[in-house]
């Protein structure tokens, strides 16, 4: 018996969903980090329905107000609008490795380093700590770049 079109469409949709999830995680450590942020986000926000690459993109690009440094209204201020490109620190001029996982596969795989960067950079860009949902959205966006 041959599958009908609705069954094929459903199978394709399920496969696509699995592919998106795999693309977002890719590395077991990155997946654990995202799982941790998802658990925190569920506890902080009862209606939490998952991470959004689109919200992560908006967080990355900005512009935001309230940050400590007027020269950095968004992550893209130092990391470039293309997350696969090499960034440059606004003050020191030093190169910054790409944020996109496709260009820097080790990005978001060390939990201590990830949290250290969020603690510093969220305050500099947003003027406050990032929420677990924002962190997960941000990683989800950059995991698919």
UniProtKB/TrEMBL annotation:
Gene3D superfamilies: Cytochrome c-like domain. The keyword Zinc does not apply. Keywords: Heme, Iron, Metal-binding, Plasmid, Signal. It comes from the Bacteria. Residues 1-23 form the signal peptide. Residues 51-145 form the Cytochrome c domain. InterPro entries: Cyt_c-like_dom, Cyt_c-like_dom_sf, DUF1924_SHP. SUPFAM superfamilies: Cytochrome c (SSF46626). GO terms for molecular function: electron transfer activity; heme binding; metal ion binding. This is DUF1924 domain-containing protein. The lineage of its organism: Bacteria, Pseudomonadati, Pseudomonadota, Alphaproteobacteria, Rhodospirillales.
């Amino acid at each position: 018996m041959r599958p009908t079109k609705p069954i094929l469409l459903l199978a394709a949709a399920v496969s696509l969903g699995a592919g998106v999830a795999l693309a977002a995680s890719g590395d077991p450590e990155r997946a654990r980090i995202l799982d941790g942020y998802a658990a925190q986000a569920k506890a902080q926000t009862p209606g939490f329905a998952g991470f959004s690459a689109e919200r992560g993109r908006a967080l990355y690009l900005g512009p935001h107000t309230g940050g400590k440094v007027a020269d950095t209204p968004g992550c893209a201020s130092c990391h470039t609008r293309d997350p696969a490109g090499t960034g440059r620190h606004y003050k020191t001029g030093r190169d910054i490795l790409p944020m996109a996982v496709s260009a820097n596969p080790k990005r978001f795989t060390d939990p201590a380093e990830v949290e250290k960067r969020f603690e510093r950079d969220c305050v500099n860009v947003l003027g406050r700590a990032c929420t677990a949902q924002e962190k997960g959205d941000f990683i989800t966006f950059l995991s698919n770049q």
